[in-house]
Amino acid sequence: MKIATYNVNGINGRLPVLLRWLAQSQPDIVCLQELKAPQEKFPDKPIRDLGYDAIWQGQKSWNGVAILSRVGQIHETRRGLPGDPDDSHSRYIEAAVNGILIGGLYLPNGNPKPGPKFDYKLRWFDRLIAHAGELLATGQPVMLAGDFNVMPTDLDVYKPERWLDDALFAPEARAAYFRLLEQGWTDALRTLHPDEAIYTFWDYFRNAFARNAGLRIDHLLLSPPLAERLVDAQVDVAVRGWEKSSDHAPVWIELADATTSARRAAPRRRVTPVRA
DNA sequence: ATGCCTAATGCAATTAGA
């Protein structure tokens, strides 16, 4: 089973790119972020025409998250993180699909730092960690996938020294990411590629993609029962080069069937996350 | 320190992204 996350940066402006990628990459389940569309403007008809069921939480102009599936019903379990009834941003949607509980998230950017936006990012992160701990404690197959707006280590930034004061690379943001990981989550991409500089985002500015001046900020985190099934994890880098592309590229993982031993299918390396 | 680019809103210029 192939599960992907993709920050589309405007689902209507990006629709041809999204549909082309879905048809080509054929993911079974997809988490989308930054729909930038109100609830009623989600293009569910062309997505259904490609064979995908969908749930989404839209918002006018900003944010917005969705989960797509072509492998069985999407049983929604919540939209919005607990812990702040005044949080009006559409940044979290969660559902059980094909035996996996999936939390699709768009963590706040947090710039400029310091300021109220950075404070909101850290508070949101705390709420995510609290909720993630409860999900992990169930012992069930759980995945958190989306745009975390955090580069965990120097290896995840093309030029780390330039990003030290940025909300995406601030020590507080990285510390929060590792507090989350240390609950017992596996960072799928980094676990299968422990030493590679891998990016999922390239700025529209300054020809960043051509220079490979990128960041790794889109992550797929797996609970232990899913981590055992991890056989592959990749970024569809080429999609970033398509005309009218998002500034993010899709990221995906391949999971062995629940009944199949991943160890037999493809032994995976275990790595301990390096602290920032 | 700022613009560089792009989308949404709504029709000019602002906000937000990362």
Automatic annotation (TrEMBL):
Binding residue positions for Mg(2+): N7, E34, D147, N149, D247, H248
PROSITE patterns to which the protein is assigned, alphabetical: AP_NUCLEASE_F1_1, AP_NUCLEASE_F1_3, AP_NUCLEASE_F1_4
Entry keyword Magnesium: yes
Annotated site, Interaction with DNA substrate, chain positions: H248
Cofactor dependency: Mn(2+); Mg(2+)
Cofactor note: Probably binds two magnesium or manganese ions per subunit.
Superkingdom to which the source organism belongs: Bacteria
Site (Transition state stabilizer): N149
Signal peptide range in chain numbering: none
Residues the record marks as active site: Y106, D147 (proton donor/acceptor), H248 (proton acceptor)
Any one of the GO BP annotations: DNA repair
Keywords: Hydrolase, Magnesium, Manganese, Metal-binding
Swiss-Prot/TrEMBL site (Important for catalytic activity) positions: D218
Positions of the Endonuclease/exonuclease/phosphatase domain: 4-248
Listed GO MF terms: DNA binding; double-stranded DNA 3'-5' DNA exonuclease activity; endonuclease activity; metal ion binding
Pfam family, one: Exo_endo_phos
InterPro entries tied to this protein: AP_endonuc_1 (IPR004808), AP_endonuclease_F1_BS (IPR020847), AP_endonuclease_F1_CS (IPR020848), Endo/exonu/phosph_ase_sf (IPR036691), Endo/exonuclease/phosphatase (IPR005135), ExoIII-like (IPR037493)
Classification via PANTHER family: EXODEOXYRIBONUCLEASE III
UniProt record similarity statement: Belongs to the DNA repair enzymes AP/ExoA family.
Protein name as it appears in the record: Exodeoxyribonuclease III
